[in-house]
Design brief:
The complex is a heterodimer. Chain A is an alpha/beta fold. Chain A has helices at residues 11-20, 25-43, 51-66, 109-116, 159-166, 183-189, 223-233, 251-259, 283-298, 314-329, 350-361, 364-377, 383-406, 429-433, 440-445, 473-484, and strands at residues 46-49, 79-82, 121-125, 172-177, 192-195, 215-220, 267-271, 302-306, 409-413, 449-457, 460-467. The chains are: A alpha/beta, B alpha+beta.
């Protein structure tokens, strides 16, 4: 792949070029739109493209720069947004038929911040319906293909954002991560995915899957680009009661620091239990990950084995809490106020129409989780399931807090396996759920986790995850950027060329 | 036809257990979880936003003023204020509930374990409060195209979400036993006391007819010595008077069923304002499983003890204390004061006195003529189309001798008919005491001449006999004479 096209640059370079007049936002934005036209017919990363809107914003940025205005660090750099984030006047479906055709009358807080940062919005990216899945196979509007091998999944739920960035249809994208939906797609597409500390990025306008776990964050091709986007969207939001009112960690500074390649004095933990059990990572993934750990050690990091005994309950805990919250969060889709309405023939009663609407509007995985969650919250079962899961979540939090007393950050493979082939795991939900085995803990304890490309296995990208303590996003970025510094060519730039 | 016992027969055989669940809409400026206005009566769906319409992605933020108001209510009801409390989701599908869950409180209410003392027939009953919690109201559904306005037979349902998300405080009593035949009065006295307490706090206008206070009445009956019976919950009770009526009706209905060997079905019933009956609604046996769980979109609340004490110190004089003070100021006997309270006339009388009339004058009108008018039409006293200031003006005209009681009642007719204030009505209807002494004297002479035997008795010292002559004079003057003046004229002439 060549490195001279506008779309091959990092977001940081694009912003710099726009600021200094070496390029215009308009031409950079247009180059990405043209790239979408050229390759997205094959990849299918986008559900909606807003050429006019993106170019209009780009032209405004160029005009502002011509007037000598001081703009933010990513002004003029185009961005794609996962279709679970609400965008005023632009269709937002969460890849569900139940929201097909809905045009939101308001912007999510993070979209407002992206607009304030003057970033042209290219469009909305595909995902598993309501962010439930690890492959985008559960999108109601067709699957997204992995640019590295179009026979394979791009990860999920944010496969669209990851594939768009991997295929250079966008330098940056927004993802959301409930159990790994930013990081696992990052790992399997050779891109960078950052899940911030829960509560540091506003959820207002993020279509809820699991309220206590959902976290929006950046998708990019390198740590610094992601860090800059993180700083654009994060910070306290009074409209989100779970938003943390604390200073945003200086992640861009940390990424620059990490890029210097010095990790001396940094203690990195390896969770003993991650490697145990029948469901541990496949060997090619472990090898690539281990090579990354070795490189981190060469940069001065000290590796410490830590124990999180409750880890073995993380997956089942997640699959009780997330569906429980989802069963309630998705109750509002009933055809009464917006979105799909099915069976309203003037004869049927209200309840039947609501029921038919949900029957027709939700896909199989969403229904499965609604049923799971409804069951887990039902009278007679709630203590044994939802209640017990909350207790275990507390234990997991304690385990990880204890680990961070010993180390600065934890490292692991992002996901146990490389991008699998389409259809390989749809028959057995548990096999699909395993994709998030290593990413779920940070959602449960609330801390940051980033996935950075570390190497290849069977020619497919492998990600290394760095987890930090709550509000320790900076250390995660520092370690990730340090790992990047050990690669001559960023892995993202070695993807096979598509669209030829 | 529903079989009913007489109330007396029911009470001879059974003991009632009461329970009241009261919902009060707070009059905060904005809704519970968003910034929309709470004003009553706006065009449908004009006070809505992404949050209260439950658009995808919208999130709630709790209204601090509503939390403060709820703590005040809890303190006024002698409750313990939680140090750690949170919201919970109550999940069920209903079209007027945008999220298809209600944000409410479950295991951790804001206030717990309080009480209210109410006096009925000179006895004090302590009604214990189980909990006071904060939640949000639903929208309103309008079923059109049918004959009844209910969903059955309707061709369309319209939903107004203006009310959706208005802060709602739910106050639940513990079961109230031991009231015997006074159960209806105790229920009403509790509801009245609760309303007065909340009103005194200034956190709600607590108007049952507008729905800003809604009472659900739980009632069960048991034979003396037996365990408590199965209860029914009567909703749609829209006035204080109806609280009493609903209890009375359920006592009569349930006792008749029990007498016939039937079982009481645990169910929700609806009170019918017109007939005073209750009719079956949703059966609790097929009750929804609400799948409560802590609301993950809202932060836990930890009201600081300093804040709670600050609020406690700011509480106004409790209505019960205030009533005792007013009773002493007005010089009323216990029974009279009880009548004032029962008639819901404390504020009305207080305002009337403030408008410049005597306590006895204010009490006389509100408990007498005006209560009678209210009872005739089934309206609450406060809903009559006459203001305390007008009552004060009326009494002033009587005291000045411009009106006698009979004329004053006709003036009230005019005021209630919307013809204007007392002076205007008196002028427009020509209602004024005949003060022309010449005409009066002529009438008196005429009456004496027509009743020589009565006149003779008076001359003989039986002044009480003057009444017959006064009546005659009133007849000729069509009532427009001042009885006192007439009496003086008669006595002057004959003694």
């Amino acid at each position: 792949m060549t490195g001279h096209r506008a779309i091959d640059q990092t977001a940081v370079h694009m912003a710099e070029a726009i600021r200094t007049g070496r390029a215009t936002s308009y031409e950079i934005t247009e180059a990405h739109l043209d790239r979408i036209d050229a390759v997205d017919g094959e990849i299918k990363a986008f559900l909606h493209v807003d050429r006019e809107g993106a170019l209009a914003t780009a032209a405004e940025v160029d005009a502002a720069i011509a007037r000598g205005e001081e703009l933010g660090p990513l002004a003029g750099v185009p961005i794609a947004i996962k279709d679970v984030v609400v965008t005023k006047g632009m269709p937002t479906t969460a890849a569900s038929k139940i929201l097909e055709g809905w045009i939101p009358p308001y912007d999510a807080t993070i979209v407002e911040r992206i607009k304030t940062a003057r970033m042209p919005i290219l469009g909305k990216t595909n995902m598993d319906e309501f962010a439930m899945g690890s492959s985008t196979e559960y999108s109601a509007f067709g699957k997204t293909l992995n640019p590295w091998d179009t026979g394979r999944i791009p990860g999920g739920s944010g496969g669209g954002s990851a594939a768009a960035v991997a295929a250079k249809m966008a330098p940056l994208a927004i993802g959301t991560d409930t159990g790994g939906s930013i990081r696992q797609p990052g790992a399997v597409t050779g891109t960078f995915g950052g899940k911030p500390t829960y509560g540091s990025n506003s959820r207002y306008g993020l279509i809820a899957f699991s309220s206590s776990l959902d976290t929006p964050g950046p998708v990019s091709r390198n740590a610094l680009d992601a860090a800059l986007l993180h700083e654009v969207i994060s910070g306290h939001d009074p409209r989100d009661s779970t938003s943390i009112d604390a200073p945003v960690p200086q992640v861009a500074t940390a990424a620059r620091h990490g890029a210097s390649g010095d990790l001396s004095g940094v203690r990195l933990g390896v969770v003993k239990e991650f490697a145990e059990g029948a469901d541990a990572a496949e060997s090619g993934v472990v090898d690539a990950y281990q090579s990354g750990v070795d490189r981190l050690v060469k940069l001065g990091a000290e590796i410490v084995e830590v124990s999180c005994p409750s880890f073995k309950y993380a997956l089942p805990t997640y699959y009780l809490i997330a569906p429980s919250e989802a069963s309630s969060n998705l109750a509002r889709y009933d055809g009464v106020r917006y979105g799909l309405r099915s069976g309203d023939d003037g004869q049927r009663g209200l309840e039947e129409v609501m029921s038919l609407t949900r029957e027709a509007g939700f896909g199989p995985e969403v229904k499965r989780r609604i049923i799971l969650g409804t069951y887990a919250l039902s009278a007679g079962y709630v203590d044994a399931f939802y209640g017990q899961a909350q207790k275990v979540r507390t234990l997991i939090k304690r385990d990880f807090e204890a680990a961070f007393d010993q180390v600065d950050a934890l490292v692991s493979p992002t996901t146990p396996f490389i991008a699998f082939k389409f259809g390989e795991r749809t028959g057995d939900p548990y096999q699909m759920y395993l994709a998030d085995l290593y990413t779920i803990p940070s959602n449960l304890y609330g801390g940051p986790g980033v996935s950075v490309p570390v190497g290849l296995s069977e020619g497919m990208p492998v990600g290394l995850q760095v987890m930090g303590p709550v509000l320790g996003d900076d250390i995660a970025y520092r370690v990730a950027a340090a790992l990047e510094s050990t690669q001559e060519t960023p892995l993202a730039d070695t993807a096979p060329e598509i669209g030829k | 036809m529903t079989k009913l016992n007489t109330y007396e027969a029911a009470m001879a055989a059974y003991e009632p257990v009461l329970g009241l669940e009261t919902h009060i809409e707070l009059d905060t400026n904005t809704k519970m979880f968003c910034g929309c206005s709470t004003e009553f009566g706006a065009e449908p769906n004009t006070q809505v936003c992404p949050v209260c319409l439950a658009l995808p992605g919208a999130l709630p933020v709790a209204n601090r003023a509503a939390i403060e108001a709820t703590i005040k209510i809890g303190l006024a009801l002698n409750c313990r204020i939680a140090e750690w409390t949170r919201f919970a989701r109550k999940n069920y599908f209903y079209p007027d509930m945008p999220k298809n869950f209600q944000t409410s409180q479950y295991e951790e209410p804001l206030c717990e374990d309080g009480y209210v003392d109410v006096a009925v027939d000179g006895r004090t009953y302590r009604v214990e409060i189980e909990r006071v919690h904060l939640e949000e109201d639903t929208g309103k559904t309008l079923h059109v195209g049918g004959a009844t306005g209910r969903i059955h037979g309707a061709t369309e349902s319209l939903v107004d979400y203006n009310r959706a998300g208005i802060p709602l405080v739910e106050i639940v009593t513990k079961p109230v036993a031991g009231t015997a035949e006074l159960a209806p009065e105790v229920a009403r006295a509790y509801a009245t006391e609760l309303r007065d307490i909340v009103r005194s706090l200034g956190v709600s206008d607590v108007r049952m007819e507008q729905g800003s206070m809604r009472c659900d009445v739980n009632l069960s009956l048991n034979k003396p010595g037996d365990a408590w019976g199965t209860r029914t919950e009567t909703k749609n009770v829209n006035s204080l008077r109806s609280v009493e009526r609903a209890v009375r009706y359920e006592v009569r209905r349930q006792s008749a069923l029990l007498d016939g060997g039937e079982k009481i079905v645990q169910e929700t019933r609806h009170f019918q304002e017109a007939s005073g009956e209750t009719s079956p609604g949703r059966s609790k046996e097929e009750a929804t499983d609400y799948r409560y769980f802590p609301e993950p979109d809202l932060a836990v609340m930890e009201p600081s003890r300093e804040w709670v004490e600050e609020l406690r110190a700011s509480l106004p004089e409790p209505p019960r204390k205030r009533r005792e003070r007013l009773q002493a100021e007005w010089g009323l006997a216990d029974k009279e004061m009880q009548s004032v309270v029962n008639a819901d006339a404390v504020e009305l009388i207080e305002s009337t006195i403030a408008a410049g009339t005597s306590a006895s004058g204010a009490v006389k009108w509100w408990l007498g003529e005006l209560s009678r008018r209210a009872n005739e039409t089934g309206a609450e006293l406060g809903a009559l189309a006459v203001t305390p200031a007008q009552v004060a003006e009326l009494q002033g005209m009587v005291e000045d001798g411009k009106l006698n009681d009979k004329l004053a009642r006709q003036v009230i007719d005019g005021v209630l008919a919307g013809e204007g204030g007392p002076a205007e009505v008196a002028a427009a209807r020509g209602l004024e005491v005949v003060s022309d002494t010449g005409a009066l004297e002529a009438a008196v002479e005429e009456a004496i001449a027509a009743n020589p035997d009565v006149a003779e008795k008076i001359r003989g010292g039986k002044h009480a006999a003057a009444g017959a002559l006064i009546g005659a004079v009133m007849k000729t003057t069509k009532g427009q004479a001042d009885a006192k003046t007439v009496r003086e004229l008669i006595l002057n002439k004959l003694t």
